[in-house]
């Protein structure tokens, strides 16, 4: 099963300050992650800094795909996630350094021999993950949660993985906001 293409509309201002359309069409940067076949990143937009510059600047999605948001910025993307396979579950952990290196965050992978899933990782970001189509299981160190269309996860720099045990692809929307883990601020790991 393949999902429909993402249609993106970007607005701007013309020379007289009137609102208009800058671009209208398919996303210019859609990338399959080679180390995890079937996983496709659909880059929608990103911002640098906060407050975000509201100008007619160039498309920030052109260039290499990076997992984390820019410093003090945001990133929005759709991700198509294939079903877990027996082969991936048994050998996937050995490919995670390569997978996370390919998306610019080599230190994100936290997988160990006793990890509950080969995609265990942690990023220093606040992530909103929305299931658009299909089903997904959020895997944490001490819990798992079944997700269906409309489920929203507020992921606060916790160690986690996305396990697709449904037998069919899942499409999720992710909005990532740069953050600082609390233990880096005051040593209070897990403080709400």
The CATH C-level name is Mainly Beta
**SSE pattern, N- to C-terminal:** EEEEEHHEEEEEEH
Give the structural class.
mainly beta
Terminus-to-terminus distance: 39 Å
**Oligomeric state of the chains?**
single chain
CATH topology: Jelly Rolls
**How much is the average pLDDT?**
91
User: What's the overall geometry?
Assistant: globular
Neighbour order of strands in the largest sheet = 3-4-5-11-6-9
Biggest sheet record: 6 strands, antiparallel
Feature tags:
six-stranded antiparallel sheet, 11 strands, Jelly Rolls, three-stranded antiparallel sheet, mainly beta, about 190 residues
Describe this structure in words.
This protein is mainly beta and 192 residues long. The chain has one domain: Jelly Rolls (Sandwich). It has three helices and eleven strands. The protein has helices at 86-91, 96-102, 182-186; strands at 7-13, 19-26, 30-32, 40-47, 74-81, 125-133, 136-140, 144-147, 152-156, 160-163, 170-178. The chain has a six-stranded antiparallel beta sheet with strand order 3-4-5-11-6-9, with no helix packed on it. Strand 3 (30-32) and strand 4 form a beta hairpin.
